[in-house]
């Protein structure tokens, strides 16, 4: 089987189908087999895995996932590509290509089709839509066992940022509340065709057990409000959202958060404490 993820094979396939990469679909094809193989190895966690791929492109990662997984279901938005994939992945009989925007996929229904398999997600993500795709997965409540995805290095740094660093923001806190996240591969910009302007990184996310006592919508709204204006103190941001600055000051005191601190210095545990302190008041207030 010819490896797709090489500069020469990629060029050959692109020329055969007279294809040029579409910028608006975030198309940058991987042309380094060692990196693609690493992503596939990190993604496939057991010998009974179904891999869901977002954006197979011309099949570089799909091919390597197919060698390790029982089945690959690959969602591609570009209508030019299914015929290309039928050619490039001709020998991979366990691959199903679906011409569909991944944002429209019903993940719960998809996972329910494979009750005896570990369903995992793998992708070299289209960069224009990285965060919406990940939040769609995080919010789906589908039993996805692992997510292994490549994205721009800067965005990866924000997802995995630790407290008291410049990259730490609401996205980091919410992601780390929902999942355990780690960076598994660093990817230089020169392993793509066309070459992007930035380096990339592969992140792996595994879901934490859901805490049913937390109303996520309210919790996430509170976190986003605390980070609303980065240079403002937690009292100013939180107080503005809570709608009563004096009461907010008392609440921060109750949970031992100094009102002069900024959100970037607050840990996930501190945000959970703050949420638990306001939950009751807040829900009563919005019901009245
Ligand atoms: N997996 C291939 C690789 O690594 O060489 C291609 C990766 S390329 C960065 C992103 C792919 O996602 C492209 O094929 C693009 O057409 C596809 N794509 C973009 N938006 C999408 C969406 N909303 N749903 C499904 N596929 C999408």
Give a description of the structure.
With 288 residues, the protein is of the alpha/beta class. Helix content is 42%, strand content 18%. It has helices at residues 7-16, 33-43, 60-68, 81-88, 107-112, 130-139, 153-159, 170-178, 216-226, 234-242, 245-254, 268-287; strands spanning 29-30, 49-54, 71-76, 95-99, 118-124, 146-152, 179-187, 192-193, 200-207. The chain starts with 6 loop residues before the first helix and ends with a helix. The mean pLDDT is 96. Bound molecules: S-adenosylmethionine (SAM). S-adenosylmethionine is lined by residues 25-30, 54-57, 60-61, 75-78, 101-103, 124, 126, 129.
Question: Oligomer, anyone?
Answer: single chain
**How widely separated are the two ends?**
66 Å
Reported by name, the CATH topology of the largest domain is: Rossmann fold
- Broad CATH class of the largest domain: Alpha Beta
* CATH architecture title of the largest domain: 3-Layer(aba) Sandwich
Beta-strand percentage? 15-25%
For the largest beta-sheet, the strand count, sense and barrel status come to:
7 strands, mixed
The CATH fourth-level homologous superfamily of the largest domain: Vaccinia Virus protein VP39
Share of helical residues: 40-55%
Bound ligands, named by name, code or SMILES:
S-adenosylmethionine
Strand order of the largest sheet: 4-3-2-5-6-9-7
DSSP strand count: 9
Total count of domains: 2
């Amino acid at each position: 089987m010819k490896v797709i993820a090489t500069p020469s094979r990629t060029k050959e396939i692109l020329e055969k189908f007279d294809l040029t990469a579409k910028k608006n679909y975030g198309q940058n094809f991987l042309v380094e087999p060692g990196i693609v193989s690493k992503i596939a190895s990190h993604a496939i966690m057991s010998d009974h895995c179904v891999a869901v791929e977002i954006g197979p492109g011309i099949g570089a990662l799909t091919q390597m996932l197919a060698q390790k997984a029982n089945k690959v279901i690959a969602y591609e938005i570009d209508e030019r590509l299914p015929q290309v994939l039928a050619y490039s992945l001709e020998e991979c009989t366990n691959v199903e290509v679906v011409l569909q925007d991944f944002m429209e996929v019903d993940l719960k229904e998809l996972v329910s089709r494979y009750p005896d398999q570990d369903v995992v997600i793998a992708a070299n993500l289209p960069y224009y839509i990285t965060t919406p795709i990940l939040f769609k997965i995080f919010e789906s409540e589908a039993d996805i066992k692992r997510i292994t995805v490549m994205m721009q290095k800067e965005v990866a740094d924000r997802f995995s940022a630790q407290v008291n660093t410049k990259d730490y923001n609401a996205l980091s806190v919410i992601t780390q509340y929902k999942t355990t996240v780690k960076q598994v591969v660093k990817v230089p910009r020169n392993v793509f065709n066309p070459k992007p302007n930035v380096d990339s990184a592969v992140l792996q996310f595994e879901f934490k057990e859901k805490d049913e006592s937390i109303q996520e919508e309210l919790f996430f709204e509170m976190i986003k409000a605390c980070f609303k204006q980065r240079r403002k103190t937690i009292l100013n941001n939180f107080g503005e959202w809570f709608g009563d600055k004096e009461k907010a000051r008392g609440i921060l005191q109750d949970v031992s958060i100094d009102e002069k601190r900024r959100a970037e210095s607050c840990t996930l545990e501190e945000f959970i404490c703050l949420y638990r302190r306001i939950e009751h008041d807040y829900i009563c207030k919005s019901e009245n």
